[in-house]
Amino acid sequence: MDFSSVPCTSTSRQQRIVGGQDSIRGQTTYIASLMRRGGHFCGASILNEKWFLTAGHCACNGLKKPVRPSQIKAIVGLYKISEFNRNQIENADANSYEVTIQAIIFHPDYACNQPYNDIALLEASKYIYFDQHVRPICIASNHDSSAFVEGKTAIVSGWGWNQESQQDGDKSDTLQRAIVDVFRNEDCESFYRDGNRPRAIAKTQLCAGKRTGGVDSCWADSGGPLVTGNDVLIGIVSTGIGCARPGFPGIYTRVSEYTSWISEVVRK
User: Fold this and answer.
1) Is pLDDT above 50 for 181?
2) 118 in catalytic set
3) Where in the cell is it found (predicted)?
4) Choosing from 23, 96, 107, 118, which is the catalytic residue?
């Protein structure tokens, strides 16, 4: 097994989403749905044949304690959740399949009750089979400067809620994707101050969304990928205030800040 492709540099090759649209089937081959008790609850990105990358809080329960690896299933090659459920019942051929998890590795500085260092690796219990529907993603290098992403657009994907109110909205059946703007951390802090909800954006985080709101990740998109137009993973859906509110972009874990840690874990 070759781990040398993780990470790759930015020159090598991109919470239902609010304000997004249906992705094209086979367009987002690196995303996985994390399911617990048969339902989707978070997203993840495929790094290689054995590892997924997600948000740390996706591996915590309501008591803010780590869950057991056996409680999480990763579904790869998925487009419509209903298709996977139907294929499981009918035992029909399908592009999507389930991968069980044998280990959860949290970043050593992460705790379930805090928003920083919100990143975790999930080790698959068997090799992930790659085909046209299932492919790994490159991650942004720790040599990439902030200028590589800030001031540009990126793409966020997931099966999360299509609006903040879970009473009025619903989780998406079809994988969604949305184009968002990536902001400088200083600008993002300014937005939050202007909205009377000041917060510090760490260098290990980045902000993305729309200044005027309307497009954002939302509940159950957590852990999912934020990628550049040429499919380099730059962010993990992490936190924020509500979904798609004006002046409150989503806050993501900045993947490039964790390149060394990711490489150290997956190459053991």
Assistant:
1) yes
2) yes
3) Secreted
4) 118
